[in-house]
Amino acid sequence: MVGGATILTFVALLYLVELIDQLMGGRLDSNGIRPLTTDGLWGIIFAPVLHANWQHLMANTVPLLVLGFLMTLAGLSRFVWATVIVWVLGGFGTWLIGNVGTACGPTDHIGASGLIFGWLTFLLVFGIFVRKFTDIVIGLVVLFAYGGVLLGAMPVLHQCGGVSWQGHLSGAVAGVVAAYLLSAPERKAREKKAGARRTKT
User: Fold this and answer.
1) Complete domains list, the chain, with CATH
2) Which residue ranges of the chain lie beneath pLDDT 70?
């Protein structure tokens, strides 16, 4: 229940931010990630809660609700830390490569899709790292339902505007990093157990 309420609250916040942005004529959107510029670093904080329009936000809503809820099943603390890692590391990656392949000059990256891709890859590999049946099953379900979405992380060259594959790719990589880091307790326990078995033999 707490996990579901957390995700619903976060999505509600996104709709509130978009409402404010619309009332301001879209001026908030200029606070996204502007690659390789000093002031563009602030966009790492703000970009995931900003969207170009209602259609952009609505397209992200269902994946946010579904993947976000599944993320909380690993524990609320893990969910929070995974989100922080994806938010910051994925955002920094976007800041580094955000202009790669663009055909119309500097870019401004906004939207929660980087977070979605981070949650997606986290769920896909977390079960492999912790080797728990339930987490592996969740990963397989996510792969079946959303695996095709990963094509959105494929680089597209000579693009002008549109979907940020750079943000998707950075978020996806950050999700794998988060899963590895946050699976440390299970991995260490498994290694310790394996070491104890070797000692006995």
Assistant:
1) 2-200 (1.20.1540.10)
2) 158, 196-201
pLDDT at 201: 55
Given the structure tokens 């095709």, which residue do they identify? 148
- DSSP assignment string, 58-86: HHHHHHHHHHHHHHHTT-HHHHHHHHHHI
Query: What per-residue confidence (pLDDT) applies to 163?
Result: 86
How buried is residue 159: exposed, middle or buried, by Cβ count under 10 Å (0-12/13-18/19+)? middle
pLDDT in tens, 14-39: 999 999 999 999 999 999 999 999 99
Cα 153 to Cα 31: distance, rounded to the nearest angstrom:
23
Distance, in Å, from the CA atom of 46 to the CA atom of 33, rounded to the nearest integer, reads 8
Other beta carbons within 10 Å of 183? 23
Nearest to 88 by CA among 100, 76, 96: 96
Distance of alpha carbon 144 from alpha carbon 30, whole angstroms:
36
Contact 196, 140 (CB under 8 A): no
- Give the predicted TM-score (pTM) of the model: 0.92
